[in-house]
Amino acid sequence: MKEVLSKTDDPNAPLEGQELFELTLLDEANELGTGYHVRQAHAEWSEIDGQMMWDQEEADHFSILSQAQQRYAERRLALVQRGFIYSDMDF
């Protein structure tokens, strides 16, 4: 599952000045079983580069799906509280 959270729901809003977060919940099979990864990455418009630039990637690793889902929900709630209330999964 991958979700992009932003502060606007306008698909025609210019990228300049925007900021967004991508939340991802992935499962990965390995020799020990299935592992779950919750990743959060931040993107912000860069005047110098003239494009969106990704930074501040954070990841958590779990062996239990319910723990990964809980962490995803915690990260999502923290972003919503910071004003990132629009999700690409809602469109």
Residue windows where pLDDT falls under 50 for at least 5 positions:
none
Give me the count of strands.
Answer: 5
Strand content: over 45%
Biggest beta sheet summary: 5 strands, antiparallel
Number of domains: 1
Radius of gyration: 15 Å
Q: Can you write the helix and strand succession as a string?
A: EEEEHE
Q: How far apart, in Å, are the first and last alpha carbons? A: 15 Å
Total helix count? Answer: 1
Please state the average pLDDT score. Answer: 91
Question: Percentage of helical residues?
Answer: 10-25%
**Given the C-alpha coordinates, what overall shape results?**
elongated
Give the neighbour order of strands across the main sheet: 4-3-2-1-5
Helix/strand-derived class? Answer: alpha+beta
Structure description:
The protein has 91 residues and is α+β, with helices and mostly antiparallel strands. The protein has one domain (2-90). It has one helix and five strands; from the N terminus they run ββββαβ. It has a five-stranded antiparallel beta sheet with strand order 4-3-2-1-5, covered by helices on one side. A hairpin with a 2-residue loop joins β2 (19-30) and β3. The longest helix has 17 residues, at 65-81. The chain is elongated and about 45 Å long. The mean pLDDT is 91.
